[in-house]
Design a protein that fits this description.
The chain is mostly helical. It is built from five helices and no strands. The longest helix has 38 residues.
Length: 141
Amino acid sequence: MLDSGVGNEGKAHNRCPRTAAVADIEHLLAAAQALRASVRSTEVQYRRTLRLLESGAEISDALENVQAGAKRLALTQTLDTFETMRHRSRLALVAAGLAEGMTIGELGRTWRFSRQLASRYAKEARARFGAPTSGPSVRKP
């Protein structure tokens, strides 16, 4: 699993919200690259399975031949890691936005999700980063 600056207690290490956002986006990009490779590998497996089935192989033989179970688990784990990194980077960006003076409403409009969801993200970001509630604390003109 990729390190995202979160200690065992679930709180982010003491770093500024912008620095955390940059680091978490870097982790997200690494997870996206791993996901892309896993999807490509899985596609190759699907094509091999298709060829085996078209040639008349039994389902059980075809699935065993392509190691379907192991591939499924690997793709699922990679998807989970990607989703975790995506969520963490979104939280870090919400925390950074709040620290730079964005309101919860602005965050919701920017991300194109409801104000209620933006509020939940802000609450989670505050718990993780200690981000301000909202308001122009460091807002630049």
